[in-house]
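Deliverable D4.2, example record:
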Amino acid sequence: MSVDGTTAWFDEILWNDSYGTCRGTGVLVLSGGVWRIAQYNLTIPIPNDLARGFAKTIKEYESRELSSR
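Output generated by the structure prediction step:
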């Protein structure tokens, strides 16, 4: 939490039946006595040993998508 108590940031580990382990990170801002989400990201962590394979698959997918436009 920020020193003045008006901004907070967080990270969380979530379970999703479709995607498995996920990670959420975000920033909250206190405005008018109410906490509001200013920013939120949801990611699917990929183990380093699998990252190159996923990166290759994503690049191939993006290439196909761009060429079909």
